[in-house]
């Protein structure tokens, strides 16, 4: 390593500022390229459940299993995915909430894997949505193992969350 004035430079002549700018540009390219992001990041799952406490609990379950998570209110889901497309979405749907079914349709048409979350009384709706493209179905109440199994199913076999060795 050499110096240019008081600033250290790498042997190829770049200063710290130039190196940082280059790394930032690389990060930006990776963020825009889903294939590169998938190689470098853990699978990102957006959790769109009505109850804030449940969103946070499910996000924690998935994060502990090595998934990247982003809990959002269902009303903010479409804006969130417009900013960055997730690898999968856990979406609470209800036959009483037409907006939730519309969100599901938009996600499936955008080829985003969806796990639907329903109450037991919405079993007929869950069956219909599963036939229309839902990757998995979580019926409330559910346990940690069910959440993890559905996330893995939505992400596909090749998308295994990272764990610390």
In short:
By secondary structure, this protein is an alpha/beta fold. It is 47% helix and 18% strand.
Fold and architecture overview:
The chain is α/β, with parallel strands linked by helices and 165 residues long. It has two domains: 2-32; 42-155, Rossmann fold. The chain has seven helices and seven strands; from the N terminus they run ββααβαβαβαβαβα. A five-stranded parallel beta sheet has the order 4-3-5-6-7, sandwiched between helices. It is globular, with a radius of gyration of 20 Å.
Features:
globular; 165 residues; alpha/beta; Rossmann fold
Strand content: 15-25%
How many helices? The count is 7
The CATH superfamily of the largest domain is identified as Response regulator
Provide mean pLDDT, rounded: 81
The percentage helix is 40-55%
Alpha-carbon Rg, integer:
20 Å
């Amino acid at each position: 390593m050499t110096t240019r004035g008081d600033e250290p430079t790498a042997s190829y002549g770049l200063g710290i500022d130039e190196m940082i700018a280059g790394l930032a540009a690389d990060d930006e390219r990776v963020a825009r390229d889903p294939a590169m992001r998938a190689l470098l990041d853990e699978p990102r799952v957006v959790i769109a459940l009505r109850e804030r406490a449940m969103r946070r609990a499910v996000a924690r379950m998935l994060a502990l299993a090595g998934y990247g998570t982003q809990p959002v209110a269902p009303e903010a889901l479409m804006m969130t995915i417009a900013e960055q497309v997730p690898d999968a979405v856990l979406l609470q749907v209800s036959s009483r909430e037409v907006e939730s079914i519309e969100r599901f349709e938009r996600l499936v048409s955008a080829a985003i894997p969806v796990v639907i979350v329903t109450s037991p009384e919405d079993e007929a709706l869950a069956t219909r949505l599963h036939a229309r493209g839902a990757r998995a179905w979580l019926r409330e109440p559910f346990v940690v193992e069910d959440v993890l199994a559905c996330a893995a199913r939505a992400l596909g076999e090749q998308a295994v969350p990272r764990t610390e060795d």
